[in-house]
Structures are given as C-alpha cells and as structure tokens.
Specification:
Blueprint lengths: L3 H15 L6 E3 L9 E3 L3 H18 L23 H5 L3 E3 L9 H8 L5 E5 L36 H12 L5 E5 L2 H9 L8 E3 L26 E9 L7 H14 L1 H4 L2 E8 L13 E3 L5 H9 L3 E4 L8 H8 L3 E5 L15 E3 L4 H13 L4 H12 L1 H16 L2
Parallel strand pairs: 1-2, 3-4, 4-5, 5-6, 7-8, 7-10, 8-9, 10-11, 11-12
Helix pairs in contact: 1-13, 7-11, 12-13
Length: 403
C-alpha cells in the first residue's frame, strides 16, 4: 500500500476494527505483515492493466507525457467480485481504484451483488470525466470533453466517453458516496455526474491521540533558540499544486514589509524537491530535511510553532491535522478541505486565496497569538480521532443496511 489514499484507507480499517467491526482490506499490493490486509495481486496481469491504461491515455493525449498521471479511465482492472472476502461481506467499501486496480465494469459487477457499496472519494475523480483535480476547468459541471489534459478539442474525447460510463454506473441504486471534506462534497454537488446523489461527508481519520503537543527545543534541529519555526511539507514540495512559488513570494513580502517578523522566523521544510534551486529564492532562513517518514513528521511538528500550507487545492489537508495534533498553529488557504480543519482566527488562520499578503498576515497573527497547544491538540482529537470517524461510518453503514 502506497500513497495518501492507501494510508487513509488502512487507518480507517484499523479504526473500524477497534470499534468491533470485522473489517479486512483487499488490495493489489500488500506491504507489511498485517493479517487483515489481503492481496489479490497477479503481478503480470496487474502490470498489463496498468500499462494498457497508460498507453490508452498516451495515445489519446497526442503522445504527451505531461499529464499522463493526472488522469485515469478505469477501463482496465481486475474482476474481484467472486473473491471470498467480497462474497462474505455485508458491506463493500471502495477507496482508491485507479491505475489498473479496478475497472468501472468490475465495480458494476460488485454492485450487482446487491450489497451496499460505499465509495470514499479522496479527490475529484469520481465527479469528473478522467481528472483527479479539475483545478480551474469547469467542464465537469456539464459533460466534460475537449479535455485540456488530453490536449483535446474533440467534444467526444476520452474524458467524455469515460464520464458517460461513470454516469451509467452511478445509476446502481446500492452505490453510495462519501467525501472526505465538505469542499469535495460541494464539488460533487456542482458536477453533472453526482449533482443529484446524496453525498455523505466523513473526514479521514488520523492517529491524532498519539501525537505529543509538548514543544521541544529548537536546538534539536540546530536552529536558533529565539525563532518561531514554521513547518511545511509535502511528498514533493515543488509540485505545482503545493504552491511553492507562493511560499517564495510570501517570504519576500515578509522580508520587505515586515522585517522585524522576518528576523523571528525559520522555515523547517520536509519532502522531496526536484528543482533545489527554488530553495535559494526563499527570503527567510530555512532548513530542508528532504523526504521523511511519518515518525519524522511527528518530531518536526513538536519542534515547530506554525504549520503552513500554500497549496492551491487540498481535498482534505492531512499535514494541517498533524500540525494541530502537535500543537502548531495552522496558516493556510481555504480553497479545499482546510476549512473543515481550521476555524479562522480561533484554531488557525485561513488566508485569502493566493494572497501572499494575507498569508504573511496570518503568519504574523500566529506569532502574536500564542494559542494553547493542548487546546489545538484536543480540538483535532474531537474531530478526527479514529473512534470518532469510525463511529460516523458505522452509523452511516447501519442506515444503509436498514433500508
């Protein structure tokens, strides 16, 4: 299991088991030794499905590699409807199914088993033709087609055809959808695919109860003792969606217009970066730790005062939750699931979208308003702890079983 959706799904499975639910994960590629994670891998067949879908997209987008992994069609994948775990289940839950894991045809066969099927959406893929995030494109509100990710000017292109297949699948009466944030549910409500489907909102669960919120000294990371540490991280910092250019502009704004604040700050960055020269453009001191483990993130957060996100879009915002669980004050935009996590000027600062001036104001607010770290920790425990999220799923599933 790799990737954010896989980790979130595994955490949910563990949370449900802790609440007495006999939950098991069925995955393509099982990593680790958990007996409740079962692999249905067929290496050659899975590789074939993966490559066949990439080839389909490559041919459809005029031989361009630039957007090859920003879209999925779910035309290829294994039929697992006869698997004993599905046959014995009372409820079937779907999470990440792309890149050759499951096809839309397979999901239809699963639905035809007659059991409630709950599909948790971690991005916009379910409510668009083929893209995982529409960004500034609004074609998903109508019919898709003429897809920019395919360099297409054809109305009936691959995005249109895939959307039509999804529309047919979504007519299955026992297929139900969960969004991990109100923002994502709102995008579904705007879409032509899910506009009339009731969308349940249940957040991702995170092991927030196990996070420490006791601030540790800067010296552990060889940082000056008198600075406020701003943590910011991503799998890849210079992924366009993470807004690293906005971070650069924010630091320059602070140095020019808030020099006293600039002298109090130090950035603690984590995650991969392909263009390391971007770090040299930051106008305040920084330390870049490179890729880190989940345990490293916990340690980084308890050595920080602020957790910053300049992401243009976030379906949820897990790093903000981790920061809050560690007692950091979050500063972020609100164009995504962040507004389910941060209460503006109560548990953090929600800046105006793409405004580096307001991000700078948010950082200054966070420095000036030393919020109680235990309060921030307790707030996310109340919202996102495994037992809280698992109970929301259990209640929802029970309503489906009672129909």
């Amino acid at each position: 299991m790799r990737g954010g959706a896989a980790i979130s799904s595994y955490r949910l499975m563990q949370a449900l088991r802790s609440e007495g639910v006999d939950a098991t994960m069925l995955v393509c590629d099982a990593l680790g030794q958990d007996e409740h994670v079962v692999s249905y891998a067929h290496p050659l067949l899975d590789k074939y499905h993966f490559l066949a879908e990439r080839l389909q997209i490559f041919l459809s987008n005029k031989f361009s590699l630039s957007n090859l992994f920003k879209v999925d069609t779910a035309d290829w994948g294994r039929d697992i409807s006869a698997h004993p775990l599905l046959q014995d289940a009372d409820v079937i839950m779907l999470n990440w199914i792309n890149q050759g894991a499951l096809s839309l045809q397979c999901i239809e066969r699963i639905c035809r088993m007659g059991k409630p099927v709950v599909w948790t959406m971690h991005d916009m893929w379910n409510c668009t033709g083929i893209c995982h995030h529409a960004y500034d494109c609004t074609r998903y509100k109508k019919f898709c087609g003429e897809c920019k990710y395919l360099n297409s000017d054809l109305f009936g292109d691959l995005s249109y055809r895939t959307r039509r297949k999804k529309k047919e699948l979504y007519e299955m009466p026992n297929l139900h959808f969960v969004a991990v944030s109100n923002w994502l549910a709102g995008k579904c409500a705007e879409s032509s695919l899910l506009r009339y489907d009731p969308i349940k909102v249940i957040p991702n669960t995170m092991p927030v109860e196990t996070f420490s919120y006791n601030r540790k000294p800067n010296e552990d990371y060889h940082l000056p003792a008198d600075v406020k540490v701003i943590a910011m991280g991503a799998a890849r910092l210079d992924d366009a969606v993470k807004g690293f250019d906005l971070l650069i502009d924010t630091t320059r704004h602070i140095k020019q217009y808030r020099p006293e604040l600039a002298r109090k700050l130090h950035l603690l960055l984590f995650g991969d970066i392909r263009d390391a020269s971007l770090l040299q453009k930051l106008a305040i001191p920084y330390t870049h730790l490179g890729p880190v483990s989940n345990d490293d993130v916990r340690d980084i957060m308890v050595h920080s005062d602020i957790v910053l996100s300049t992401s243009l879009y976030e379906s949820f915002g897990g790093t903000l939750v981790e920061g809050l669980a560690s007692g950091c004050v979050p500063v972020t935009f609100g164009n995504g699931g962040q507004t389910d996590i941060v209460d503006h000027m109560q548990t953090g600062y929600v800046a105006q979208y793409k405004s580096v001036e307001d991000v700078a104001a948010g950082i200054e607010w966070a420095v000036s308003n030393a919020l109680d770290r235990s309060m921030l920790h307790n707030e996310v425990v109340r919202r996102f702890s495994p037992s809280v999220v698992a109970q929301q799923y259990i209640e929802y599933i029970n309503t489906l079983l009672d129909r």
